[in-house]
Design brief:
With about 80 residues, the protein is mainly β. The protein contains 1 helix and 6 strands; from the N terminus they run H-E-E-E-E-E-E. The protein has one domain. The longest helix is centred in the first third of the chain and has 7 residues. The radius of gyration is 11 Å and the shape is globular. The structure holds zinc ion (ZN).
Length: about 80
């Protein structure tokens, strides 16, 4: 996952989705799929990262844990960056 937009994502995170909230929309990197957060979170294991990994369930039933520092805030949605 590219980390170059981390500082920008961090800046706009203030007005973005609430980490740990259920049903927040997360748009896939290609913009085609939209998943929903389940409310579950984990600490990000990446060294030096202060983000949280949020559990996202996708329409195909797949579950992923994208890091908040790797996502772009778009209003009340996230987009995988
Ligand atoms: Zn992270």
């Amino acid at each position: 996952m590219k980390r170059t937009k981390a500082s920008k994502a961090q800046r706009v995170l203030v007005d973005g989705p609430v980490v740990g909230e259920t049903g927040v929309k997360v748009v896939s990197r290609d913009g085609i799929e939209t998943g929903l957060t389940t409310g579950a979170t984990r600490t990000c294991g990446m060294e030096g990262c202060l983000g949280r990994r949020v559990c996202v369930k996708w329409p195909d039933g797949k579950v992923t844990y994208p890091c908040t520092k790797g996502m772009i805030v778009n209003g009340k949605k996230w987009r995988i960056g």
